[in-house]
Amino acid sequence: MTERKANGLRRSPFIPLTDEDIALVKSEIYTIEADEEIFVFNEGLYTSYTDKIDKIDVMGDIFPDENSNHPRDIMSIRAVLAHEYYGHRANRGTTLPQGSWADEFRASYMAAQNAPNLTDDDIRHLILDALERAKEAGVVIKHNAFIRRVLYGR
What we know:
By secondary structure, this protein is mostly helical. Helices cover 44% and strands 6% of the residues. The chain has one domain (19-152). Strands 1-3-2 form a three-stranded mixed sheet, with helices on one face. A hairpin with a 4-residue loop joins strand 2 and strand 3 (55-58). The longest helix is centred in the C-terminal third of the chain and has 17 residues, at 120-136. The radius of gyration is 15 Å and the shape is globular.
């Protein structure tokens, strides 16, 4: 069995976003009340936040792989944008190495807690992604009240 990598298996980042795609993504940026000026389209290697220039590159991998059941693969466009904006950007300049499991865990967890206008599925997928990132790193995360409420409704 092939080991999963932290980037997931979403749509290829090398498929350029069309004008229609960009319009859809911009509507999701608006929905989560993010600053549209931070986002650039079709200018990176994959969808990601870059601390040094305070920009979020949005590429073809913003779209989910609907043939998967892994939370990182099936997160909505809105959830991925929240992960980058309310997770990575909101924590810019911290000491966690960019791309480390802890940085990625925090980004999904904080997005689930703080991003406005996420659906219940968005929040659930972000929490499941955070837990998967820890699991991939061999770290066991104790479920706190927020995680239990999202996953089990209590």
